[in-house]
C-alpha cells in the first residue's frame, strides 16, 4: 500500500472513531436510518480533490433530517486544504489579537514608543505578580531624569492593558490639560472620571505640572477618589517621596499638597530608580 494511502486510511479511522453524534450533533445516514428519522435522500457529494463519495451529515429539524454537510475526506488534497484553512484562521485570529492589543494600548494612552517596554526589575515583577489581590496598592517610582521611570511605568501600563484592565496612562500635566479642555464644551466630570475610575491610573511625571490651586486640587480629587475606591495608581516623579509635598506646595497650596503626598504614601510603595532626585529628601 503506498504510504499516502495508508495515511489516508489512518485518518479515516480517526474520523470514524469519533462517532456517533459527533461533529456538533450532526448525524450520518446510518444513524438517521437506525433512528427511524424521516429524510430525503441526500444529494451525492464528491471530494473535489480525489472524487471519493463523502458521507452526508445531517441535522434533525422538526423530526426530519436536513443534509447540511459531509464528512471530511481523508485524502491528501482535502487534508492540505483543511490545513491551509486552519492556517488562514490562525492568521486571522493573530490579526484580531494584534488589533485588540493596539486598541487597548491606544485607549490606555500609552505612547507607541513604549509598546515593547519591559518592566525588568524585581520590584515590578513582584508588584505585577501580587497585583490582583493587593487591595489597590500602587507604586511611587522616583528617580532622576533618564532613570527609566516612564519606561517602567509604561511597561506596567502595557501589561495591565494587555491583560484586559482599563488603564489610563498620562502625564500629570496631560491629565490636567485634558480636564481643562472640557471647561468650555462640558464633559469635565466625565474627563475626571476617566482618571478617577479606571482600573489602573499611571500618572507620569507628577510635580512637573503647574501648582495652582485648581491643578493641585484636581490631582488630589483624582487620587482621593482612587484611594476611597481602592483603585491602584502608579505614579512617577522626579521628586523623592519626602520632597513631593514641598514641590506641590510651591505656590502656596500647602494643605492640599500635604494631602496628596499623604494619599500617595498610604497607597504607593516607593521604588527608587537611581539617578539624582531633584531636591531629594527622606
Ligand atoms: Zn478526497
Automatic annotation (TrEMBL):
InterPro entries: AAA+_ATPase, IstB_ATP-bd, P-loop_NTPase. GO terms for molecular function: ATP binding. Pfam families: IstB_IS21 (PF01695). It comes from the Bacteria. Residues 1-23 are annotated as: Disordered. Residues 135-265 form the AAA+ ATPase domain. One of its GO terms (biological process) is DNA replication. Gene3D superfamilies: P-loop containing nucleotide triphosphate hydrolases. Residues 1-12 have a biased composition (Polar residues). The keyword Mitochondrion does not apply. Keywords: Cell cycle, Cell division. SMART domains: AAA (SM00382). This is Cell division protein ZapE.
Amino acid at each position: 500500500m503506498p504510504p499516502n494511502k495508508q495515511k489516508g486510511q489512518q485518518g479515516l479511522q480517526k474520523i470514524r472513531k469519533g462517532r456517533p453524534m459527533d461533529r456538533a450533533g450532526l448525524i450520518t445516514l446510518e444513524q438517521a436510518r437506525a433512528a427511524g428519522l424521516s429524510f430525503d435522500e441526500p444529494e451525492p457529494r464528491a471530494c473535489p480533490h480525489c472524487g471519493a463519495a463523502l458521507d452526508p451529515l445531517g441535522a434533525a429539524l422538526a423530526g426530519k433530517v436536513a443534509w447540511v454537510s459531509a464528512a471530511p475526506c481523508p485524502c491528501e488534497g482535502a487534508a492540505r486544504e483543511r490545513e491551509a484553512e486552519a492556517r488562514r484562521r490562525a492568521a486571522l485570529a493573530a490579526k484580531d489579537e494584534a488589533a485588540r492589543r493596539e486598541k487597548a494600548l491606544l485607549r490606555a494612552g500609552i505612547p507607541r514608543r513604549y509598546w515593547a517596554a519591559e518592566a525588568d526589575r524585581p520590584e515590578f515583577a513582584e508588584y505585577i505578580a501580587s497585583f490582583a489581590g493587593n487591595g489597590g496598592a500602587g507604586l511611587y517610582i522616583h528617580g532622576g531624569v533618564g532613570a527609566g521611570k516612564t519606561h517602567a511605568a509604561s511597561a506596567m501600563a502595557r501589561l495591565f492593558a494587555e491583560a484586559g484592565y482599563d488603564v489610563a496612562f498620562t502625564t500629570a500635566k496631560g491629565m490636567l490639560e485634558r480636564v481643562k479642555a472640557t471647561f468650555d464644551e462640558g464633559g469635565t466630570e466625565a474627563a475626571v472620571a476617566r482618571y478617577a475610575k479606571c482600573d489602573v491610573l499611571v500618572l507620569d511625571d507628577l510635580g512637573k505640572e503647574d501648582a495652582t490651586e485648581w491643578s493641585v486640587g484636581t490631582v488630589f480629587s483624582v487620587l482621593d477618589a482612587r484611594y476611597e475606591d481602592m483603585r491602584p495608581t502608579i505614579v512617577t516623579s522626579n521628586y523623592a517621596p519626602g520632597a513631593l509635598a514641598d514641590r506641590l506646595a510651591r505656590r502656596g497650596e500647602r494643605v492640599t499638597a500635604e494631602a496628596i503626598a499623604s494619599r500617595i504614601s498610604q497607597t504607593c510603595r516607593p521604588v527608587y530608580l537611581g539617578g539624582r532626585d531633584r531636591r531629594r529628601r527622606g
